[in-house]
Give the backbone structure.
Amino acid sequence: MPFEIPKIKYTGRIKEVTIGSGNKAIKVGGESCFPFYTFEGEMPNLPKIAFEVWDSEPHDWQNWAKEPYIDVLHDPVLWAKKCIDVFGAEMIALQLISADPNGADRHIEEVVRVVKDVADAIDCPLIVWGTSNDEKDAILLRRVAEVCEGKNIAIGPVSDKNYKQIGASAIGYNHVVMASTPIDVNLAKQLNILLGNLGVKEEKILMDPTSGALGYGLEYTYSVMERDRMAALTQEDTKLQYPIICNVAQEVWKTKETRITEKEDPKLGDEKKRSILMEAITAMTLLLAGADILIMRHPESIKLIKDMIKELI
Amino acid sequence: MALTGIEIFKLLPKTNCRDCNFPTCLAFAMALAAGKTELEACPHVSQEAKDKLSDASAPPIRQLTIGHGDYEIKVGGETVLFRHEKTFFNKPGFAILISDEFSDEEIEKRLSKLSFYQYERIGMTLKPELVALKHTGRDERFLNMVKKAKDIPYGSIIMCEDVSLMKEGLEILKGKRPLIYAANRDNFEQYGVLSKDYGCPVVARGNGIEDVAYITERLTSMGIKDIVIDTGAKSLKQAFYDQITIRRSAILKRFKPLGFPTIVFPCMMSDDFMKEVMGASVMVAKYAGIIVFSDFTGESLFPLLLQRLNIYTDPQRPMTTQEGIYPINNPDENSPVLVTCNFSLTYFIVSGEIENSRVPSWLCVMDTEGLSVLTAWAAGKFVGDLVGAFIKKCGIENNISHRKVIIPGYTASIAGDMEESLPGWEIIVGPREASQIPSFLKTWKH
């Protein structure tokens, strides 16, 4: 008698969300099984990687992180184009670092100009990631939504403090929102409900569970995402049936273990390969928990992740 | 099926003698049902009850040991499909492949890698633990290699298809409890006998799940209990499927022939080392009991050890850092003093940001029973008088010439009480988020 795998009964399905417009638009979500459990369900849209681009030149990056982009780091438009033309990026995530009130606190209109320039220069889907400062993002992302009208970009992070302002602009200018909550199933659900009540359509929401890096709370994100997916797929919790986005790049690359060189600590091995693997393993772990979009930095870790997705499908 | 606490309680002596360190037999029974203690902790339980309980309380996946002494590792013993349902118990053992094809120099180098690649992290040592000794036809070199492995304290996997050579290898490693690799459909009787004679666990290697189940059943009928499963998967996708099938069959169906830990070989699934490492990371998350690598390097091992630590951290218990003073970036008597809680994640993030700032600083970590700053504050464990008393008690005064302490921004309201309990000290409210620490510290003037 042939042996049969004990099946899990799925009753739900993740909603499909489209980002971007035209023939380069990308659809994510649609899963009817746990991540890569394609022997018992579907994963109609493969997880996607967004290359991160900063709105201003990064100064504290490791040399081995700068290396692939060394000629374009000073110019977000060139940087985004290089990701697409040289590294085959299907999606760009513009991180509005310079707007951070605790950092450079650049003026909103200056930042908005950068966003518009990048948005106009590329034809692939764009994610715009704000400062995580509720007040500033409320104003900044509203303007971003305005100048990117018609491009169906994804904006966020949207919190329970600024969902009204950002949500309303997303509805007005027809964009996708990234609902961000601090590693908690119930808070995630609550924010999705609030956005729904506000009038944000189901196919316009991505969830950001808050990503921890390898060695820095990855396990919390991992388990919260597994629980999100379990509720969405097996407990018919419709308010959690949204694709998940994880902003991996910065979390990983700011850790000290991506900064120490082999010379400083020979046991840690080659610093470039180690950092690439730390980013890729963080991403892989989150993929296994249900990530639909990963924001990543190094072209080599992105290539590794793409290869792994192919192998597992 | 697993017994409930009450069912276990009925089989206990009910004397509440406390020899098990639990206040009552009922408390002990509950802990036993939750898998938090072992029956051996009760010295008075009857043999009859022992038999009943050990059968019923045995985890759906057999737990077994490889190696001996301080270097013995446990594999298997898992009870859930997802870590949040309880916890994953025994981290997959990491093994380095050593073949008799390699030069003597390479063999020596590989054997020494286990003691080299060890990493300290919050009072724990992260390290790989096994060597996989592979026979490829060079009998004498193979046996020499096994002899060399005898001289290191780590556990071994003997990979050899020649029964008589395997026996010689087991003889050399007698008492060190190596893992025998592997019994297949054709030779399981001979390998089963070796497993029994030498008291060593044995791998059942099949071609797919059904084949493996057949072999484990045969081995079980010979009275062998400590079995490890290899389904012979050659691709990551197949291995992924096999691991999930095995875990589900054992846990959801209590299907005994698959109720064993597994061994996987990402090194056989890819020619590219980076991809091998990525495959291994999938296997860490999805259920492998032992993972065999083509090689160990610092850049591959360290991230995987971290991932393994993360996945196998008990989600029911917050990870804590030891209370005390942590010097960062070589501080002196003029350096700033920061205070935070002992939730290890908080410690990692705060200490990491201080390190990034390159500002020499003293970080005082206070025992808040693993609660994060805000939770500890809400629970009354990170409040003015307690934090003040801690600053006094911890001895930081001896390290500095100033009297200033920086508290987390979210707990600004404790500053008043702290000032009262720390006369002469200036309490400075720091940033709310750790990410703002570097810019904050750069403005520090003592």
